[in-house]
Amino acid sequence: MRGAARSDATTNGAAVADDQPILSVRGVTVGFGDKIVLDNLDLDIRRGEILGFVGASGAGKSVLLRTVLGLNKKRAGTIRLFGLDVDEASEEERLRMDMRMGVLFQHGALFSSLTVLENIQVPMREYLDMPRSLMDELAYLKLELVGLPADAAPKFPSELSGGMIKRAALARALALDPDLVFLDEPTSGLDPIGAAEFDELVAKLRDTMGLTVYMVTHDLDSLFSVCDRVAVLGKKKVLVEGTIKDMLASEEPWVKSYFRGKRARQLDLAGRT
Ligand SMILES: Nc1ncnc2c1ncn2[C@@H]1O[C@H](COP(=O)(O)OP(=O)(O)OP(=O)(O)O)[C@@H](O)[C@H]1O
Question: Do the interacting molecules here have an ipTM over 0.95?
Answer without folding.
Answer: yes
